[in-house]
Amino acid sequence: MHEEDLTLALVGSGGEGVVSAGEILIHATAQDGLYSMMVKSYGPQIRGGESLAQIRLKKTPVHSQGDALDAMVVLSWSNFHRFAGEVRLRERAVILHDSEDAPPATLKVPAKARFVAVPFTATAKQITGVTQAKNIVALGFLAGWFDLPQHGFAESIRERFAKKSEAVQQSNLAAFQAGVALAQAESARPHYDWAVTNHEPKLVLTGNEAVAIGSLFAGVKFFAGYPITPASEIMEWMARELPRFNRVFIQTEDEIAAVTMAIGASFAGVKAMTATSGPGLSLMTEAIGLAAMAELPLVVVDVQRAGPSTGIPTKTTQADLYHAVFGGHGNLPRVVLAPTDAADAIAVAVHAFYLAEKYQLPVLLLTDQFLGQRLEVIPQVDFEALKPQVITRTTPTEEDLQRYHRFKLTESGVSPISAPGIKNGMYTAAGIEHDETGRPTSNAELDEKMTRKRAQKIETIRQHESGMLWRCGDHDPEIGILAWGSTKGAVQEVVARLQQEGRKAAALVLRQLSPLPLAQLQNFIDPLEGLLIVEMADGQFHNYLKSQLTLPHSTRVYKRLGAALFTVQEILDAIKEVDALWETTLQQTIAAM
Amino acid sequence: MGNHTATDYRSDVKPVWCPGCGDFGVLNAVYQALARLQLPFEEVAVISGIGCSSRLPGYVKTYGFNSIHGRALPVAQGVKLARPETTVIAVAGDGDGLSIGGGHLPHIARRNVDLTYIMMDNGIYGMTKGQTSPTTGGDQETKSMPYGIIEEPVNPIKLALSYDATFIARGFSANVKQCVDLIVRGIQHPGFAFIQLLSPCVTFVGREQFDIIRELAVDLPEDYDASSLDQAWQVSNELGKISLGVIYQKQSPTYEQRLQDLAQRAQEGSRPDFADLLRQYHVSEPEPAQD
């Protein structure tokens, strides 16, 4: 099977249907067996402004958004300058634009790039009578130009306009076909073979939807939330689905109310969660300490966005790491998890509830705008395999209840937890320091004991749970990469490229930032000649690892401070710096001999 | 149902309150109210934030939660909505409930969550030893305003009325019998019950706070109509006296009832099913060509 790999972008002003055309393309081609990923870039404007949808299409699962564009469809140039800097065109990229809208004279493109003027608007008007359908004409043109399989488009277009009349559906189908015909009339087209022989069952969803689906599967009974970009989709999903399952959704007055309501629900014995982004996480931090102190299971999702403060709500980051891992006053035991992609987001959400329930503590689930809002086609998820992790907290036995001590000291640090309704299980949960029964105390010795008890749970997790590492590449690598969360996609491709070049390379991607699986990490690091750490923050991940592990001399950090997505090529370039560093280290060692 | 006396609801934790604190009266009233209703220990949750008053849950032998400053109401709502069969009592002080946590009051009122909220109002921050609270008034000097208070105090009854709370009452912790009655009626009220209990701070305001309140306090007259919003506003505006009793009460669907109705609408007769839900995200395979 030839490895087709196509990256294209639809560009326009908000309201021109750039994103909806992208969604149709993803759903349509998925029906014909293709995998894809779509990332969106848009401005702060509620309506209007710039809008870009970048789609990468392959016959095998897509891990990253694509470094550069094979094609760019421009519905209008008017807002193009706003993200001209984000658009990277391949050497021989084709730029398809409306015949009525000439490219700006200032536009810089690679020397071999090609412009093709297409009557998007005129055709839309001619076929449908109005200009709105120019995005559908453009979609047809793309399908024709790149030989995309066309079975799925008809159904996807119908689905998109399902709420409109039959006439509207028909005219859009006609607009699509007209676009296809325009492309097929062009002689100098590239040739692609998209035929897929074995169709695997697939899902199409965003990272935010994946987190929500995983949480529902894990048995969440209570969701309290407050709107915030780019996490609102999780809340809106819960608002729609939880009532159907007789579970509680509530939109609160602020993030503090959201998290404390979830804590109250957890105290009442049910699995509870909230979801937010950086500014909300800052507000929730005191309450996360309460969950840790009162030893109540709690899941908090942070869909990271560029910060600090308001930052850029629509752009991604990994800079909430410090806050998630270290945020809050006092000795605050918490688990921090970070899924790598949409499929993993389902699994990690299930795992978050598993750990929260089993160890009675707050679990932070860190995703980001990149993962949360991108649309992915993924292989069907094996929910059966996740079932063993759907557990509930240990409640006291009859014997425990004879003389119930809610915070009984145990080897694991976990003590059976009661809840209203359980006879003889009454206790007072508290943010104030307390003894084994829950009675307030300011005794220093007791405080030491109880603090150790809570901290012990983290050590128990470190020793007895999986550590959540994701690994790819060689078993005995010379060059290694450490990354976390959604950076996995780019890193996975980097490792594959290095291996193609004959290098012995591997990557370890952390899906659990707290507690760190130290032994497994050190075992990975120790034999390496060179190590590259990749993060979208100003050294937070690097400093964190450095504080707990011994890193090799030839360690480089490739960090991104701005909100642009990682490309495979820039990480490959950073590997060259690691190589150079290793050379120098080697020379110095030899010289010193 | 058991046969519990008020003392049965006492936990074995000794209160940290100063001798003579008004909060003892409130605690006593809570015990008696629970006994009058014969509520099983395990079916009651007393939820608080932080402050002198917020120590109260630990002194009651039911479930309790002494949470963080200002957050008694959201924690209590979480408990109630997650397990509606629980009788939930939230307690807060004036600083806890009207300053840091003041933003939660309008929202629980507009939801009408079925729980009882006792605000133990001493007009001072006691636990932090004597700073101005939102209800500190008059010519006092406090530790945080040593040259006198230059802000007007808030009027909790007016707030509750303007937020459209469905049950509003005021009592005085020295009059335990009346407090018991108000708490019982608050618990029995289907919806959000706001009860301001004046509870003097003998240490940072002084014993004279009892005398001042006693002098101004009057029971609402026999013919007072608690269903009349006009009369309630008049009571909230009165100067030179403090009326005690149920000031306002009206019937309105509780949040829990509305949630149930909403769930019914959302389900529209269809049974919830995870596999069905997942189907929305499945890629439909292309249909084989038909002849």
Please give the structural blueprint.
The complex is a heterodimer of chains A (593) and B (291).
Chain A: E1 5-13, H1 18-31, E2 35-42, E3 50-58, E4 69-74, E5 89-98, E6 114-118, H2 120-128, H3 134-145, H4 151-160, H5 166-184, E7 202-206, H6 207-218, E8 222-225, H7 232-241, E9 248-251, H8 255-267, E10 272-276, H9 278-293, E11 298-304, H10 321-326, E12 335-337, H11 342-359, E13 362-368, H12 369-373, E14 375-379, H13 383-386, H14 398-402, E15 428-430, H15 444-464, E16 469-473, E17 479-484, H16 488-500, E18 505-510, E19 512-514, H17 518-525, E20 530-535, H18 540-548, E21 555-559, H19 568-592
Parallel strand pairs in A: 1-4, 4-5, 5-6, 8-9, 8-10, 10-11, 11-13, 12-13, 17-18, 17-20, 20-21
Antiparallel strand pairs in A: 1-3, 2-3, 2-14, 7-14, 12-19, 16-18
Chain B: H1 23-37, E1 44-48, E2 63-66, H2 72-82, E3 87-93, H3 94-100, H4 105-111, E4 116-121, H5 156-162, E5 167-172, H6 176-188, E6 193-198, H7 208-216, E7 217-219, H8 229-237, E8 242-249, H9 255-267, H10 274-279
Parallel strand pairs in B: 1-2, 1-3, 3-4, 4-6, 5-6, 7-8
Antiparallel strand pairs in B: 5-8
Helix pairs in contact in B: 1-6
| Approximate helicity band of chain B | 25-40%
Q: Beta-strand percentage of chain B?
A: 15-25%
Number of strands of chain B: 8
The global form of chain B is globular
How large is the radius of gyration of chain A? 26 Å
> Beta-sheet strand percentage of chain A?
15-25%
The count of helical stretches of chain A stands at 19
What composes the largest sheet of chain A? 8 strands, mixed
- Rounded mean pLDDT of chain B is 95
Oligomer: heterodimer
Question: pLDDT average of chain A, as an integer?
Answer: 95
Query: Main sheet of chain A: which strands, in order across?
Result: 6-5-4-1-3-2-14-7
* Low-pLDDT residue intervals, each spanning 5 or more residues of chain B: none
The residue fraction in helices of chain A comes out at: 25-40%
The number of helical elements of chain B comes to 10
Most extensive interface: A-B, 71 and 57 residues
The span between the termini of chain B is 72 Å
Q: Which regions of chain A have little confidence, pLDDT < 50, spanning 5+ residues? A: none
Which term fits the overall shape of chain A? globular
Largest sheet of chain B: 8 strands, mixed
